[in-house]
Design goal:
- By secondary structure, this protein is an alpha/beta fold.
- It is built from 10 helices and 10 strands.
- The chain has helices at about 15-20, 25-55, 75-80, 95-105, 115-120, 135-145, 165-175, 190-200, 205-210, 235-245; strands at about 5-10, 65, 85-90, 110-115, 150-155, 175-190, 215-225, 230-235, 250-265, 265-280.
- Helix 7 (about 165-175) crosses helix 10 (about 235-245).
- The structure holds S-adenosylmethionine (SAM).
- S-adenosylmethionine binds near residues 69, 93, 116, 157 and 163.
- S-adenosylmethionine (SAM) binds near residues 36, 69, 93, 94 and 115.
Length: about 280
């Protein structure tokens, strides 16, 4: 039997802009779909579990949006679990992935749109208190109009690592949420990144050696019978929490998920999962 082997290799990035411009998600769409087919269930399960906990304990789920939904596999799985009255939206910057998602989805409750969450709010200043600015109000109105209302839950699964300006993404999520609504996000766990760097034979630069949670950028090459190159932005846990707080979101908890022995180096958590709530002001 042909065994499908997933491998991953990580390098520090020396010219991030040059790499980023060459590696658009539209060009990677086919390889990404193949990656998700093989590895998707592994990282989607903890998200579904956490979501069902949250819907039991904290939030009534009538409207959910998946930011950076890729080819839509999480939404299709979710549609099997959540009640029929719930509306599910998927958005992604890459039109090729949205076309693929539409093609693969036969569930009328799931809708898709092309959206760049970083571009949309990049220029609007963060606000921790006081009334919203004109720019913010205009964006909220545009979102409510485009998506026919606001959301109980915003998912951001392995998307923040593709986004340089995480504050813009958090502001977008906050604008799209109802007060009391939940943002559930995952990023690759910093220890996983380190383990992969070490196994790739990279020597850590001195400024990374003392405190491993501040890695900025890495270039990940992974493959399933082929290769997929991804430029990842990494932030320290405290930075994610601070950025969320600046955007009117309170982080309720941070969990380490996906402890699997997938690396020769041993068992390291694969993902870090954040749950944040939009404050009621
Ligand atoms: C690593 S993939 C994760 C896809 C999907 N969430 C999953 O878990 O399978 C990152 C996704 O984020 C999307 N993305 C990157 N930057 C984005 C942005 N500024 N706005 C919306 N989507 C973005 C990419 O196109 C890509 O589909």
């Amino acid at each position: 039997m042909n065994q499908i082997r997933y491998w991953t290799e990580r390098r520090f990035v020396r010219e991030p802009d040059a790499i980023a411009s060459k590696l658009g998600w539209n060009e990677k769409a086919d390889k990404w779909a193949e990656f998700v087919r093989v590895c998707g269930p592994h990282y989607v399960e903890p998200v579904l579990e956490r979501l069902s906990e949250l819907t039991r304990e904290r939030v009534t789920l009538t409207r959910l949006i998946d930011v950076g939904c890729g080819e839509g596999s999480l939404l299709r799985k979710l549609a099997k679990d959540v009640p029929g009255y719930c509306t599910l939206w998927g958005i992604d910057k890459a039109h090729r992935l949205i076309e693929m998602a539409k093609f693969l989805t036969h569930e009328p409750r799931i809708r898709y749109a092309v959206e760049d969450v970083e571009g949309a709010l990049g220029e609007v200043k963060a606000r921790t208190q006081g009334p919203p600015s004109k720019g913010e109000i205009a964006i909220r109105e545009r979102l409510a109009d485009k998506y026919e209302g606001d959301f109980d839950v915003v998912l951001c699964i392995q998307t923040l690592t593709s986004i340089a300006n995480i504050r813009a993404a958090f502001r977008w999520a906050e604008a799209a949420l109802k007060p009391g609504g939940i943002l559930l996000a995952t990023v690759t766990h910093p220890m996983r990144v380190y383990a992969e760097l070490i196994e790739s034979g990279e020597s850590l630069p001195p400024y990374q050696q003392s405190f491993p949670y501040v890695l900025r950028l890495s270039w990940q090459v992974c493959g399933i019978n082929g290769s997929l190159e991804v430029l990842n932005y990494h932030h320290a846990t405290a930075e994610y929490i601070a950025a969320a707080r600046e955007c009117n979101l309170t982080v309720l908890d941070v969990r380490e998920v996906g402890h699997k022995k997938t690396l020769p180096l041993g068992v390291v958590p694969e993902y870090m999962m954040f749950t944040a709530v939009k404050r009621r002001v």
